[in-house]
Amino acid sequence: MTVVTTFQHHIALIELNRPEAMNALNEQMLADLNAALDEVESSTCRGMVFTGAGDRAFCAGADISQLQGRTPRAHRANAVLGQAVFDRVYRSPLPSVAVIHGFAFGGGLELALACTARIATSRAKMGLPEVKLGLIPGYGGTQRLPRLIGEARAAEIILGGEVLGAEEALHIGLINRIVDGGRPGELGIAYLAPWVRHGKVAVAAARQAMRRGQEVSLNAGLAIEADVFSACTQSRDAAEGIAAFLAKRPAVFRDE
What we know:
- β1 and β2 (11-16) form a beta hairpin.
- The chain is built from 10 helices and 10 strands.
- α2 runs parallel beside α3.
- It starts with a strand and ends in a 9-residue tail after the last helix.
- The strands form 2 sheets. A 6-stranded mixed beta sheet has the order 1-2-3-5-7-10, with helices on both faces. Strands 4-6-8-9 form a 4-stranded mixed beta sheet.
- The protein is α/β, with parallel strands linked by helices and 256 residues long.
């Protein structure tokens, strides 16, 4: 399998598994990633950690050998497929983190951009270098990167084909944290641990309000927040959280 999924501490570890190709994305990997997300959705896990096999790369991008000889229609279909798979990560009610170790270029960085958060080891290198091939990012990079770090800085990375180290990526807000001293999966689990301790209902509601709010005006986003908040108050977890706080005891959430 080009994607290997395991479960630890209520977290799904999703590993891109083509180390001989620096975990480059091909159509089989996209299909396997889609199947992995099906498995995660049917599980009781509370978060997702994305890593790459081996010590050279998180994901070096698209498998360039597959790009030759395609028709424009085939290229578009592949772009739409990659966007759809990554959008499942972005829109999942479960929080996710990409652990970038080594290279994260092109589609690899685009997968990381679809995650809730990104952390990187100190030797990580990342970028969207498609212009150097006469191409542009096709799995969401031109849309998600400007929304994350601003259009001006994103232009330098996309139009200039700039490669960033971990320190610069942290400085501009592309990654959340630099982490070292452990295996990628362990680092991802440790990062998500404070998030997955809470009930899935509230975490999913907060993610929904944030995600939907990014796509509309501030006033419309505030209305979305009010709607999601009021719906959240009717959950059993909210009743338990309020009761536990008033009784000065730990809450026992049941994800209901």
